[in-house]
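Q: Convert this sequence to structure tokens.
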Amino acid sequence: MRNKVTNFVLKILQKKQNSLYRTNEGGRIIRSLRIRKFKKRGKGLLTATKIVAIWYLLILTGSYMTNDTGAYFNDVKVINNSFQAGKWDDTVPPDNDEWDKSSLSFDGTKAWAGECNVFTTIKNTGNSANMISTWRFYLYKVTGGEKPTSGHVATGVVPKLKSGEVGQISATVKENGIYRFAVRRPLGHPGKNSPDENGYSYIWSENLINVVSCTKTEPNVSEEKSEHHPESTTPTGNEGQSENSEESTPTQKEDSPTLNEVTKD
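A:
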């Protein structure tokens, strides 16, 4: 019995000694078989990932080298060509001579001046709902009466007016003097009193516009006496009546009314 106990104790001491011998530190052995197993698996997965990445990189490189994608980035082509830059159309549309039943009149209108600008009102007494005909106005410089001294000094188009509507036309002058507006009817208008060589007839404003403040220079006293015009800048319609309709008039420009064409609408 004593021998069995002794042998059992010796075996325990032998195991303890062997354990101390394996660790070389006098401690217990830590089993790491499972850790080593997963460590080997991680290394294998990392290696496989690297191989797959290299494989895809080779595929992409080969695809880039064999298709046309490289041409879009590397090829340079020089194209010699020209293009026309945009240009504004400055052409003025032609006048519309088709009569739309409109009829303009200076009756009961007024006229006035402001420095180098002259103004007058005009009324559409016709039956057109929407005015489409071209009524062109002309501005003339006249003498003490109503005769134009030369061709027109300004021209423009009367704005579109509805039936019964009163509009305004204006022009710019370069010097002091007395001015008068005339309006040309469209060719289709039935009024044909004293037509010009192109078949146009005209209506004249009875209001004479006296411009006195267009220039800074003071007017000559002798000129004031010779003109005999009133100082008001908004003359009435009774001013400047015709002295003699058969008197000779200066040469007019093309499409401009002559003195014999003075009439009411």
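Residues 2-65 form one domain.
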